[in-house]
Structures are given as C-alpha cells and as structure tokens.
C-alpha cells in the first residue's frame, strides 16, 4: 500500500462510524500549500459551512505561507464562526485519515476554542 491509499482506507472507516452517529462532521483536508475545512450535514451530505486558505477573507488574515500551523489556526477559527452562524454547535471531527498532529491538530484546537464541540 502506498501512503495515499492507506490514508483513504483510514478515512473510510471513520466516516462509516460518523454516518451512524447522525451528527454533522467537520472534515479537514490538507495539502502542502493549503488547508480546507467543511461542515457536512448528515442527512443529505451537503456542505453547511466551509473555510479554506484560498478564501479571500481568510487569506487576508494570514501572513506568509498558507500551508503552515498559523494558517490552520485561522481556518479553524473561521470554520467555527461559520458553523455557529449556521446553527451547528456539535460536530464529529473527520480528519480524513491524516494524523492528528501539526496542522490538523491546530485546526481542531482553534475550532474548539471558538465554540465548536467535538
């Protein structure tokens, strides 16, 4: 198995469990140059709120490179604000098979600090 297929295998298992719970999920995707976060509803799998380092208002708050921990903190803060504005307080954290450290952990901690419950 290569790295990508292993990550996708891990993500399938966690998403199957989240589907049983019937709670919105905060899904995270990272690349070497950007961070993406979406809150997905459990009923019809539609995106309720989203934030990423490509958004103009988010990118304006980031100094320098958009693929680092500081950028992930900003994305976590914005996604929490947008989810609360959409009426979502509690989510399941879907890390998409990525390890829970570094940028993924920083995004999760920032979202928790700004009012989302995992």
What does this structure look like?
The chain is built from four helices and four strands, in the order H-E-E-E-H-H-E-H. The mean pLDDT is 94. The protein starts with a helix and ends in a 5-residue tail after the last helix. It is globular, with a radius of gyration of 14 Å. 31% of the residues are buried. Helix 3 (69-85) packs parallel to helix 4 (103-113). The protein has one domain: 2-Layer Sandwich (Nucleotidyltransferase, domain 5), CATH 3.30.420.100. It is an alpha+beta fold and 118 residues long. Strand 1 (25-30) and strand 2 (35-40) form a beta hairpin. A four-stranded mixed beta sheet has the order 3-2-1-4.
Question: Over all CA atoms, what is the radius of gyration?
Answer: 14 Å
What portion of residues belong to β-strands? 15-25%
Q: What do we call the CATH topology?
A: Nucleotidyltransferase, domain 5
| Strand line-up of the largest beta sheet | 3-2-1-4
Structural class: alpha+beta
* Residues in helices, as a percent range: 40-55%
How many distinct domains? Answer: 1
Order of H and E elements: HEEEHHEH
Shape by Cα distribution:
globular
CATH class category name: Alpha Beta
Largest sheet: 4 strands, mixed
Q: Which residues form runs of ≥5 with pLDDT under 50?
A: none
Mean pLDDT: 94
């Amino acid at each position: 198995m290569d790295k990508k297929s292993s990550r996708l295998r891990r993500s399938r298992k966690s998403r199957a469990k989240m589907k049983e719970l019937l709670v919105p999920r905060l899904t995270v995707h990272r690349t070497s140059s950007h961070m993406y976060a979406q809150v997905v509803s459990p009923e019809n799998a539609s995106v309720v709120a989203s934030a990423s380092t490509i958004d103009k208002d988010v990118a304006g708050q980031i100094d320098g490179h958009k693929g680092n921990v500081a950028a992930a903190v900003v994305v976590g803060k914005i996604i929490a604000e947008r989810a609360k504005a959409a009426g979502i307080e509690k989510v399941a954290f879907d890390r998409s098979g990525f390890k829970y450290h570094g940028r993924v952990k920083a995004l999760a901690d920032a979202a928790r600090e700004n009012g989302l419950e995992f």
